[in-house]
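Q: I have 127 residues here and want to know how they pack in 3D. Can you give me a structure?
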Amino acid sequence: MDVMFPREFQRFQIVSLGFSLLLLVAWVIFVYQVSPLRDPSFQPGAANAGSLLPWLSGVSEDNWFLTAKILAFSLSTNIAFIFAQQVINQKSIWLVRFIATAWVWLTLFLATYWTLFGYLLSQWLAD
């Protein structure tokens, strides 16, 4: 017997995905705006990298990477839930559906995280 997600949960999936995408876009824009590359006096290799904003000077690289992991987790989980809803409607063995959903989640998580990691390296951790 297949279990369907309640209608409210299906709507929440779409709203949550939209919110995750909005947060991701806002974070990308924020990283771009506070990047040391925006500073006219910045010179690569001169060890003068850092935020243009004094209140961001205490934010470590680990915090930037943790934020990238959280955003990647959120986005991949939302998409995996939507994928799982589609897979549940298929008539197949539950283990195959679980493995397919886990594979989609893992692939999306790694792709999103490494993309955000590369973006941080190019914009923030340039020095």
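Q: Anything worth noting?
A: The mean pLDDT is 81. The helical segments are 7-34, 61-88, 94-123.
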